[in-house]
Amino acid sequence: MTHFGPTGKCVEIEKDIEEFLAEVSEAGTLFTQGVKAYLNTYMASFKSFLLQTVETERSADELRRTIEEKLYGQTLIPESRGDVLRLIENMDSLLGQYKGTLWQLRIEQPEIDEIFWEDFNTLVKFVVASVEAVTQSIRAFFQNREEVKEQMQKVSYWETEADKASTRLQMAIFRREGMHLSHRMQLRDFVRQVDHIADQAEDVADSLAIYVIKRAL
Amino acid sequence: MPPLPLLSGLLSGWILGVNDSSPILGPAVGSKMLTYRTTAVCCALFLILGALSGGQEPSQTFASIGAPTVPMDVFLIALSAAVSVALMTLTKTPVSTVQAMAGALLGWGVVSGCPINRGALLTAGLVWLVSPALSALLAVGLYKFIACSIKALHINIFKLDRMIRNALFLACGFTSYALGANNISGTMGIFLPLSPFSELTLAGISISSAQQLYLVGGTVAAVGMVTWGRNLAEATGDGIFKSKASPVQTLVVVLTQGLVLCLFTSQGLSAYLTGHGLPAMPLVPLSGCQSLIGAMMGLSLMKKGVGPSWRSVGKLTTRWLATPILSFLLTGLLVFACHAFM
Asked: Is the ipTM of this complex over 0.85?
């Protein structure tokens, strides 16, 4: 515990959290690029994006552990650290889902008809936007709580858009003629898996809303 | 070797450090914002400083309740007060040493037939009743001010944590200073006629006999705070203060105690009020714990879930009442036995 101590420890953890959130944003970009590369059958690029996502996730994991150690080791923000850690863990889980979905594509290599590409890209765009909005909400939680509400509204908006895109895409998949049921179900599972990321982002935003209420002055 | 009556004074000073410091250290340590050792050492230094430079007036008001001059009576009064507070400390209840002292003085007065200044006693009683309510009001005002400042400044969570931690550390020091100024004179005041010290001049600074006596009292209180105060402080922090109080609320309750103690100690403020045609503030030693509970209740009325439960307030109130009654009975018994058999 510090009394009038150097401000270094606090600055360090602020930097770690900022870096962690930057990794989440970067993973979102890599995920978008990865799915795009897969749809365009640029498999070499896809593999490269997958490996970069894996690396980003590993680096975020390390940062998460460092943040945990610093928060508890130096007893920083004693009344908030439990909630902060849950937020960081949930964000790490979102990052894991990006990685998991790309791996799933790599393993199963589903055939995705060109007619679905645009919808797939749109869905991914909305999902990544919802995660980015929750990342911004968390940044606001640390920096300026007055802005959290505004950012959280964006999470809800993008999650709803992702739901709409997911429904549209699933309907298109099941109305498309000449496809095997197994193929339809495989694509549906992918759509659901991607959409689930936005749902989880909304769950994180809901938890954040409670943390903000708990700390209202 | 201090004279025999002063030994019980040292004991009551020590027990004051153990017990009366818990409302300051308890919330600070219980909130996990500060560590016990560092905070206690800093508070101990401020307590000594407060005792040395603090108010002589509270002791005069308090001593005017009754003024024992027989060394054995003084010894028994301080001993009874110390034993009563020690018993309460064993039950992990923060009480007030000065209130135990008031009970003991009253017990001595009743048994020995010496006159008791009812006016002074009534003033002290009124202040003790009013101080929790005043703390509640002050805590609400302070909280609103701090909360508005934080909102306006848009401070990030870690910077805010650091600022509150530092402010809490300073608040603990300030409140310990106020405790030293207010309570040490109340506890050691009855020893003034028996003080073995004479006026001293060190490097051109004159230190009166009373100041030397308070310095000794403050030092033993500081030792009590650092050595045996931890258990009670932790019990106060985890027990009474085990609420969902945020660091800001912790800062507010500690600071409120200091301000209330200062209000009833500061001769400057009292002179300012009388100078402006206002009634003077009665300078009376009071209980930090009652001020703490008052502040917590004030905050809980404003924001639910931060105050102690009614059950623990009831339990505390019972023990606060029991302490002076116990010291009253103990002193009465001891003084009676002493007068009868010696």
From this structure: no
